[in-house]
Design brief:
By secondary structure, this protein is an all-alpha fold. It is 53% helix and 2% strand. It is built from eight helices and two strands; from the N terminus they run ααααβααβαα. Helix 3 runs parallel beside helix 7 and helix 4 packs across helix 7. The longest helix is centred in the middle third of the chain and has 21 residues.
Length: 197
């Protein structure tokens, strides 16, 4: 499946030993422009938690307004990329998330045909299809009911939907060894898969 903003293979800092993750690895090398922003938001511990991510995304204006991002959406985004299971994002994880969120933003805007800052069921269905999801009309309707307010899905709810679909699809794909679209779950495995998102 194709996902807008799909991370670069590896997704880790390639600079060997050296300074801060976003800092110059070699004298004269430019520092990553996102690092200063990350350091300002992340504070002393060099990590970004859900509250800090919420402030960061809200202040950036990426949602098109200064309405705060839903805290649960921020937790979902962290869980998607939190490889060390710390509940926070280091710089490289943050940088990857920033690329993914920007990709989803461009995708969202391209399907918001009326420029309302929201997508409806039909726009969502088209967006999901272009991301490679082949879902039944019933599944799209269920997703729309879950993430919409009066039939309209705002950007941060769209992000929450994309994060969950991506994570659930990856969980399913790892268990679908024959790639036939069918898996058997033990109850505990199912609960771990769903509750870790």
């Amino acid at each position: 499946m194709a996902y807008p903003g799909q991370p670069v293979p590896g997704g880790f800092y390639q600079g060997g030993y050296g300074g801060a993750p976003g800092g110059p690895a070699f004298p004269g090398q430019a520092q990553d422009p996102l690092y200063d922003y990350f350091a300002a938001v992340g504070g002393q511990d060099g990590q970004i938690d859900a509250d800090e991510l919420q402030r960061c995304l809200t202040q950036s204006g990426i949602a098109g307004s200064y309405k705060p991002f839903n805290l649960e959406t921020c937790r979902l985004m962290i869980s998607m990329l939190d490889r060390d299971m710390s509940g926070t994002l280091g710089f490289n994880e943050f940088k990857e998330l920033w690329a993914v969120v920007n990709g989803w933003k461009q995708h969202f805007v391209s399907f918001d045909s009326d420029g309302s800052g929201t997508v409806d069921r039909q726009e969502l269905e088209k967006a999901l299809m272009t991301m490679g999801f082949r879902l039944s009309p019933q599944a799209v309707t269920a997703i729309t009911k879950r993430y919409s307010t009066q039939g309209k899905i705002a950007f941060d709810d769209y992000i929450a939907c994309c994060v969950k679909l991506r994570a659930l699809t990856e969980c399913f794909r790892r268990r679908d060894t024959t790639q036939q679209g069918f898996v058997n779950f033990h109850y505990d495995d199912f609960i771990q898969c769903v509750m870790s998102i």
